Structures are given as structure tokens and as C-alpha cells.
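Sequence, please.
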């Protein structure tokens, strides 16, 4: 017995007329009658009572009709789910992100993806760049937002966001009344830095900026989360150079100032493995549309 036999049977059971059922199925009436006879022979019981004027379901035929409808509904559902999965519209996606990305590019991309792919379940993990690379290699995340550069075989990376750097000062700092701060004025201050081992791209950009201003930053404290760095600034433990989007992190006791001499920007990149699943490809398409960068 094949699925077409069930489709033919259901059509006849719904119409209770072989001619109308054949028209509905776009086949001739004699072959349809033959298919139903073959089905009855395979099943070992009669599905219809036929007279010259009427066609009626037998009691067994009625039960078989009800169960056949359930089977075909399940088949149609399986086909639909398979199509959705192949288009990246169904399934689960595990996404990593560095903490600072939560204040710029991550929210609009996630919102757009949820709107377009509501059936894809998103699992989010706040992780450092190195943690994301390790989990991506292990297959524990599908895609991640990191601080570049990323130079690993088997891993793709593309920039999706760029922004300038700013300085974060304690609100009690004497330079907070200035419209902007020249970096050389902070040469004697302790700096709160992100460890280079966890985000070399961001760390190197900050150190390079200081060196362009004529000094190397004094490392006062290190912290692995941007929110922690800002909190340490608020506690007057030092100053920090941070991505401009950290202004969106509202923390009392901190004042952000522009760096006029800064032409340096830092970036957020997406990372994913070669030969990505359909849901990852769909996520990349949405990210490209929202960020304006080509992926």
C-alpha cells in the first residue's frame, strides 16, 4: 500500500462518487476504481458498498477513513516541518555573544530574527570571545558575536558592527566638566582593562590608542565583562576606554567622554562553522539586512 492509495480512498470517501473523486484527483474514473479494488484486496476487507446509484462506506471503511485522514494530516505536517527546517525557519539556534554586544548590534538582530523565524527557538549565552570560539569548535554554540580578529581554520567570521572608542570616568573625576577629553591627559591614571588573552582585538586597539597619545596605559585592574569594567570605574578604581555603545549601559557614577584624537574603531563580528545549517544561514541573512554589512 502506498500513500497514493490512501489519497485516492479519501477522495472517494469524501465524495461518495467515483466520477467526482476522479475529477478531483485529475485522473480517469476506471483507473481510480481499479486502485480502490487493489486497496481492498490488500486490506482484506471491503471499503465501500456500491450500487448502480450509490456509493457508501462500510463500517470498516468508515473507521479506515477516519484513521487515514489522521495519517495524511501527519504526512502533510511532516512535509511542512521538513520544508520549514530546510529554509531555516524551524529548529533551535544556540547563540553566543560578548557582553558589550548586548548594548549595540545584538538586540536588533535578535528581534528581527524572532519576527521572521518565530518557530526557531533561540538559546542565548553571554561568553567571552575565546569561550565562544571553543564552544563553536565543540558544536556547543551555532553562531556567536565576538570581538575580532578571528583567525581559525574551519571558522568563518564577518564584521557586522563598528563603533568608536570613548573614555569612561568616575563622576568625581576633575575632567568630567570638559566636552571631551584628550587621552594624553590620562597618562598617569590607572586603567581598567579587558584581559588581552580573552579579547586581543579590543585590548590591542585600546593600547594602540594610548601609545598614539604618547604613553602606555597603567594597568590598575582587569575585568572580563564590560559591565564590570564600568562598575569599577564608578567605584573610582580607575578610568577605562570602552566602545561607545557602552553609554547605553546606565550606571550611576560614570561619565562618558569623547576622544577627539581617536580615529580607532572596534568591531563586532559574527562567527560560524563551515557548512552551516539552514537556521544559521537564515540568521546570517537577517544579520546582513539589519547591520548593513555584507555577509
Amino acid at each position: 500500500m502506498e500513500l497514493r492509495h490512501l489519497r485516492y480512498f479519501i477522495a472517494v470517501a469524501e465524495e461518495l462518487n467515483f466520477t467526482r473523486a476522479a475529477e478531483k484527483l485529475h485522473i480517469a474514473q476506471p483507473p481510480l476504481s481499479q486502485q480502490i479494488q487493489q486497496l481492498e484486496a490488500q486490506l482484506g476487507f471491503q471499503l465501500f458498498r456500491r450500487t448502480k446509484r450509490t456509493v457508501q462506506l462500510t463500517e470498516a471503511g468508515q473507521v479506515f477513513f477516519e484513521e487515514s485522514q489522521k495519517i495524511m494530516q501527519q504526512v502533510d505536517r511532516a512535509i511542512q516541518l521538513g520544508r520549514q527546517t530546510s529554509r531555516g525557519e524551524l529548529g533551535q539556534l544556540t547563540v553566543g555573544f560578548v557582553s558589550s554586544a548586548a548594548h549595540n548590534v545584538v538586540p536588533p538582530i535578535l528581534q528581527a530574527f524572532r519576527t521572521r523565524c518565530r518557530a526557531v527557538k533561540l538559546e542565548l549565552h553571554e561568553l567571552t570571545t575565546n569561550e565562544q570560539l571553543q564552544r563553536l569548535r565543540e558544536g556547543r554554540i551555532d553562531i556567536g558575536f565576538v570581538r575580532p580578529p578571528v583567525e581559525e581554520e574551519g571558522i568563518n567570521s564577518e564584521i557586522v558592527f563598528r563603533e568608536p572608542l570613548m573614555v569612561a570616568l568616575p563622576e568625581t573625576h576633575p575632567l568630567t566638566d570638559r566636552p571631551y577629553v584628550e587621552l594624553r591627559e590620562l597618562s598617569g591614571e590607572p586603567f581598567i582593562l579587558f584581559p588581552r588573552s580573552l579579547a586581543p582585538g579590543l585590548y590591542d586597539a585600546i593600547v594602540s590608542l594610548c601609545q598614539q597619545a604618547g604613553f602606555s596605559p597603567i594597568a590598575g585592574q582587569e575585568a572580563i565583562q564590560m559591565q564590570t569594567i564600568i562598575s569599577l570605574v564608578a567605584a573610582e578604581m580607575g578610568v577605562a576606554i570602552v566602545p561607545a555603545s557602552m553609554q547605553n549601559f546606565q550606571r550611576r557614577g560614570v561619565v562618558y567622554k569623547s576622544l577627539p584624537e581617536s580615529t580607532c574603531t572596534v568591531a563586532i563580528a559574527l562567527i560560524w562553522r563551515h557548512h552551516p545549517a539552514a537556521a544559521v544561514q537564515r540568521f546570517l541573512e537577517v544579520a546582513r539586512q539589519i547591520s548593513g554589512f555584507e555577509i
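The chain has a mean pLDDT of 90.
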